[in-house]
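Hello,

I think I submitted the flavin mononucleotide job twice by accident. Can you confirm which output corresponds to this input? Input:
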Amino acid sequence: MQILQIISSARGAESYSTQLSQGIIDKLLVAHPGSSVVIRNLAQTPFPHLEEAHLQAYFTPAESRSAEQQQAVHHSDEAIAEILAADVLVIGVPFYNFSVTSSLKSWLDHLTRAGITFRYTPTGPEGLITGKKVYLAVASGGIYSTGPMQPYDFATPYLRHMLGFLGMTDVVVARAEGLKIPEFQATALQKGLDSVTV
Ligand SMILES: Cc1cc2nc3c(=O)[nH]c(=O)nc-3n(C[C@H](O)[C@H](O)[C@H](O)COP(=O)(O)O)c2cc1C
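Support: Only one job matched these inputs. Its output is below.
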């Protein structure tokens, strides 16, 4: 089995979303010995915001692209190839300002390509990245799985929708939450990890 780990926290080994991701990957490696892990670190090597060259490249046939357009499309092509090669994705999701980091958003923007990762049909859009299992390892200062802040979790509904739009509907959410609440901080990571069975 091939596991693709997406890191989007800039906090290195201190990052709770990365530690939770690692814990999930350790469980996967026990359940599926011999699996390999590919790491895409979006904090170390960010994907650029979509600029004019990217958009032009997407809508120009590969054989007609200029050198600049060929260069512009390589992030997208690489990200798509990595996902297609993977069986399982483990995505680290630091909760920033009620949503995802801009690095994760940018990666998703480069993945979303009409005719390649989704297409429009007479009955609606169809995702073309199928057969993947996705684990979201979400780290947040507050509590969003329940309670008064639940409606303000714009990260997991967005990710579920976006991944589903691309064809990835088998999504498990694990949360290390309450990390800024002294009463919950010490147990948050383990609780998130214990919630996941692989
Ligand atoms: C810029 C920034 C914005 C944040 N916004 C929120 C927020 O809206 N809600 C929340 O509960 N925690 C928020 N936090 C706390 C983070 O979710 C928390 O520190 C989490 O551990 C970050 O993930 P990481 O440890 O993987 O980097 C924010 C932290 C930063 C640095």
